[in-house]
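agent> Task received from the user: take the single chain below, predict its 3D structure, and emit structure tokens. No templates, no multimer pairing.
agent> Plan: (1) validate residues, (2) run structure prediction, (3) serialize to tokens, (4) report one or two observations.
agent> Step 1 OK, no nonstandard residues flagged.
tool_call: predict_structure(input=
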Amino acid sequence: MTDIETFETIRYTADVVALTTDGNVLLIERDWPPHEGSWALPGGHVDPGETSRAAAARELAEETGVQVAADDLRQIGVWDSPGRDPRGRYVTVAYAAVVPADTQIVAGDDARTARWWPLNGLPRHLAFDHAAILSTATA
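)
tool_result: status=success, residues=139
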């Protein structure tokens, strides 16, 4: 096997578990494949020259209108299983943020809609491995 055959394209993303002080989590309904119409955590690609923490804050604002300072995000882990995304190899760094219970949201960017969900009343299925990310954030 040559060196070129041992490398794969890896995409770098960031996701955010935004929780309210009264026990809700912010999810977006995806407006594009894969998992179009499924609920997911806000997140997306890390831009060139950007840290994953900065990307997480930017994506949260773009997709939901929720503004959180990057420094207020707490890293909860890295998810890098080879099959976690049907489009190819994606590695995500996930962050958590706690926001006031009355935080207003506005779906934008890649979200069909955005909604606060009670932690004890989540949709049956979340896109990708976001249920595992959420579970880690709330453990």
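agent> Step 4: summary for the user.
The first helix runs from residue 52 to 64.
agent> Done.
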